[in-house]
Structure formats: structure tokens, C-alpha cells
């Protein structure tokens, strides 16, 4: 369930990015509504909806809002309007899940929409089923796998850092094998070949 929610949010962000890239030939603002993401928040069904408006005049103070299709405001929590320098504005809202159609509007204020998107009919969009009993085991398996990958990475890093010293004779630095520690005093270490 957690993974599916993040994937759906990622899909919505990709749709918003695609809508930002598209150029339109219409005169005036062009609002577009992304498909909503239905979720459960505090035991209540809510919809997360994103609206992207392109071709806004520079410095425009037009309001952007999402309604039930007729222009009226809903009991929604809006995250505000984000204006970009290229004439694009976007807003994200969390709406109650009781509307059958949604639309995005642009206008001088929230009472008179000057431009509206086509209503998006959302009847038949069902809430994703709750995760089964295997979801906890799957999450634990993913956590164990990530832990093993991190431990393996730490092991490889320590092996590579403990390798030959730069500028050395190709042998690893091992202070415990130094003649001073082996009781040889300051004498030269014996070589393995005919020393």
C-alpha cells in the first residue's frame, strides 16, 4: 500500500511535468486537471488533485482553484498556487471524495471562472484495496535486503581502504608486522627470498 501510494504520486508528478512541457495554441490561460489520487487520511477518503494552468500572462494574479465542475469552491485544502516565469501556474488540493466530477478554473477571483478545464468524471474510480497480510513480511524482507546491501558496501569499502598505501612498495601497511614490534629492534626486516 505504501509503495503503491508513492508510485501513484510519482505518476502524478510525471503527468504534471508532461503538462508543463506541452505547448498550447489557445489564447488565454489553459487549465488542465491531472487524474486524482484517492487515499485515506485519518479514516476519511480524500482525493489529491493537481491542476496546471499554462499561458498565464506575466504578473497575473488570477486565482486558480478546483471545483466540482460547476465553478463552486469545495471544502478543500489547497497548497497554494505556484507561479513560474514561463507563464505556468500549478496548484495541488486535497478534496473530499464525494464529488462525481472535478474541474480546474482560472479567474480574477474564486467566484467567476474566466477559463475552465473540461470536467473530469471520476465515478467508477475505486479506492485501492488495503494491503494484505503479506505486506508486513514484504516490507521486512526489503529492509533486510537493504541492510545486507549496506553491510556488503561497508565491507568492500573497508577492504579497499585497508589495501596498499599509495607510494608504498605494493604491500599493505601493517604496523603490527614492523620489526620494531616483532622484537627486531631497528634492524632491517628479513626478506622472504634469501634474506
Automatic annotation (TrEMBL):
Residues 1-27 form the signal peptide. Residues 164-195 are annotated as: Disordered. It holds the Pfam family PTCRA. The keyword Signal applies. Residues 182-195 have a biased composition (Gly residues). It comes from the Eukaryota. InterPro entries: Ig-like_dom, Ig-like_fold, PTCRA. Coiled coil: none annotated. Keywords: Signal. Residues 29-106 form the Ig-like domain. This is Ig-like domain-containing protein.
Amino acid at each position: 500500500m505504501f509503495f503503491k501510494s508513492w508510485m501513484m504520486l510519482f505518476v502524478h508528478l510525471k503527468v504534471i511535468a508532461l503538462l508543463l512541457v506541452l505547448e498550447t495554441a489557445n489564447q488565454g490561460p489553459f487549465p488542465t486537471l491531472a487524474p486524482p489520487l484517492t487515499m485515506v487520511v485519518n479514516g476519511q477518503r480524500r482525493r489529491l488533485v493537481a491542476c496546471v494552468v499554462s499561458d498565464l500572462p506575466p504578473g497575473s494574479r488570477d486565482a486558480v482553484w478546483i471545483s466540482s465542475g460547476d465553478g463552486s469552491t469545495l471544502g478543500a485544502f489547497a497548497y497554494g498556487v505556484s507561479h513560474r516565469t514561463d507563464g505556468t501556474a500549478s496548484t495541488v488540493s486535497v478534496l473530499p471524495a464525494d464529488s462525481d466530477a472535478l474541474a480546474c478554473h482560472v479567474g480574477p477571483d474564486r467566484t467567476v471562472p474566466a477559463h475552465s478545464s473540461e470536467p473530469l468524471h471520476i465515478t467508477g474510480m475505486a479506492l485501492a484495496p488495503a494491503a494484505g497480510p503479506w505486506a508486513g513480511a514484504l516490507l521486512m524482507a526489503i529492509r533486510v535486503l537493504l541492510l545486507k546491501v549496506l553491510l556488503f558496501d561497508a565491507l568492500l569499502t573497508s577492504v579497499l581502504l585497508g589495501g596498499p598505501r599509495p607510494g608504498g612498495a605494493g604491500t599493505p601497511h601493517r604496523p603490527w608486522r614492523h620489526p620494531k614490534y616483532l622484537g627486531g629492534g631497528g634492524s632491517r626486516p628479513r626478506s622472504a627470498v634469501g634474506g
